[in-house]
From TrEMBL:
It comes from Parendozoicomonas callyspongiae. PANTHER family: BNIP - RELATED (PTHR12112), MANGANESE-DEPENDENT INORGANIC PYROPHOSPHATASE-RELATED (PTHR12112:SF22). InterPro entries: DDH_dom, DHH_sf, DHHA2, DHHA2_dom_sf. Coiled coil: none annotated. It is an enzyme of class 3 (hydrolase). Residues 178-301 form the DHHA2 domain. This is inorganic diphosphatase.
Length: 303
């Protein structure tokens, strides 16, 4: 049995890609596969699962000795426990290639598109496999989420084409569905400061050390104005507890495409010349961690 799994702090794409890839493996490769998750789903993902009528995947444990198929990541720092002793049989991903290695040849589909589900949509088409309504809803939800309704610079024509076709199969009005989804995505009501930091937190190795960069998406900065001090305190705590050189949180306003980066830790001084205030810098026209914030941070931190 192949365990299909996305990254830690799973976002919608990690959950939906795992569910859909498991079904694709059964249909296209005649392989036994089951979707797993590295954590509970967000309210945004729950909204999509409900529309699709699909249950959330079970939580994965240690995968040592298991066959594993990775979706939406290839970094060991985002992997389930035991991955280095597991057999990675395949990958579907749209991030930069990470640091995993394999013993055997594997089937890898890594495309520079806006969402792992866009690759899966094309794999269904390539293998002439019919896409069911639940699968279409899952893939559409992930594409709208990952591309922030096609506004992110990571979005490509392949994502738009896939979304259009999937909306048709799902019988959903694309604009209406995207509006609903963004409203759920940017609703932070009732979320603790800890869960805001954890929501989409990614760990990166850098100069033999570790740092984390999280991201939350909002419709207006007013939503977080009174939480900034608490968020900064939480980032400081992460540095101390997890031995990080930097803990950062991208607070991205999807209405204006502006990101405020909050950050704490020893390496904060490397960002000092860009700071707007202590531990805050503003990134204009920045929505994507993968394509904009993280490449920029790597350059600045290295210099
Ligand atoms: Mn993704």
């Amino acid at each position: 049995m192949i365990k299909v799994v996305g990254h830690t702090n799973p976002d919608t794409d990690s959950i939906c890609s795992a569910l859909v890839a498991a079904e694709w493996l059964k249909a296209a490769r005649d392989m036994e596969a089951v979707a797993m998750a590295q954590g509970e789903v967000t309210s945004e993902t729950a909204f999509i699962l409900k529309e699709a009528g699909v249950e959330a995947p079970a939580i994965v444990g240690n995968v040592a000795g298991e066959k594993v198929w990775l979706v939406d990541f290839t970094d060991l720092s985002q992997a389930p426990e035991g991955l280095s002793e597991a057999e990675i049989v395949g990958i579907v991903d749209h991030h930069r290639l990470g640091d995993i290695t394999t013993v055997n040849p594997l089937e890898a589909w890594i495309w520079p598109v806006g969402c792992s589900c866009t690759i899966l949509f094309n794999l269904f088409r390539m293998e002439n496999i019919e896409i069911t309504r639940p699968q279409a809803v899952l893939m559409l939800g992930a594409i709208v989420s990952d591309t922030v309704a096609f506004r992110s610079p990571t979005c490509t024509d392949k994502d738009r084409t896939a979304a259009k076709a999937l909306a048709e199969i799902a019988g959903l009005d694309l604009c209406e569905f995207a509006d609903q989804l963004l409203r759920v995505k940017t609703n932070l009501d009732g979320l603790s400061v800890t869960s805001l930091v954890d929501r989409d937190l990614k760990k990166y190795p850098f100069e033999e050390e570790s740092l984390v960069v999280g991201q939350i998406e909002i419709a207006s900065f007013e939503q977080v104005e009174d939480k900034i001090d608490e968020l900064q305190a939480e980032l400081t705590k992460r540095c101390a507890e997890d031995g990080l050189k930097l803990a950062a949180l991208m607070v991205t306003n999807i209405s204006t495409s502006t990101t405020r980066l909050l950050y704490q830790g020893e390496w904060s001084e490397r960002l000092a010349e860009h700071a707007q205030a202590a531990g805050v810098l503003v990134m204009e026209d920045t929505m994507s961690r993968k394509k904009q914030a993280w490449p920029w941070l790597q350059t600045v931190l290295a210099s």
